[in-house]
Amino acid sequence: MTAALTYRNARAEDLPAIIDIYNSTIPGRMVTADTEPVTVHDSLPWFEEHTLDRRPLWVAEYEGQLCGWISFQSFYGRPAYDATAEISIYLHQGFRGKGLGKDMLNKVIQACPGLNIDVLIAFIFAHNHHSLRLFSHFYFEKWGHLPGVAELDGKKRDLIILGRNV
């Protein structure tokens, strides 16, 4: 599959698809620390936190189909960190493993100057080798290792903090 993705700001009517994609990652225990599905209603405050000019939420479409999303989150909520953002990328299960994550992460990096972002960070489980490899491909470095901070199905899991100046 060639990366023929288009991007746009997420709209309220996209939220059910965004949440479906997110919830589809929960059973695999690779991507999120949520252990039960989240609801659209519970996600409304998160959705509303994304301002278009500072910390957008984008959807990615492949041939007109919403196939993934990207969110920027402010880091730590203090003014001194305004130029730092946490990035999250999620793909619909039917589109995973096809190289689209590279297109999405490239889009993120290219957009940073226009969003006044100088530093990107990502929090990735240590056992999520695919995501670690993806971010490494774009020169993200290991900036932190939090051993055993998550418990998924009775197993302690490490969290890796990756970062990159853009």
Provide the spatial order of strands within the biggest beta sheet. Answer: 1-2-3-4-5-7-6
Name the beta content range: 35-45%
Q: How many domains in all? A: 1
Class computed from helices, strands and strand pairing: alpha+beta
Number of DSSP strand runs:
7
Structure explained in plain terms:
There is one protein chain. The chain is α+β, with helices and mostly antiparallel strands and 166 residues long. The protein has a single domain (5-165), classed as Aminopeptidase. The chain is 25% helix and 36% strand. It has four helices and seven strands; from the N terminus they run βααβββαβαββ. Strands 1-2-3-4-5-7-6 form a seven-stranded mixed sheet, with helices on both faces. β4 (84-91), α3 and β5 (119-125) form a beta-alpha-beta unit. It is globular. It starts with a strand and ends with a strand.
Label this structure with key terms.
alpha+beta, Aminopeptidase, 166 residues, 4 helices, 7-stranded mixed beta sheet, 7 strands
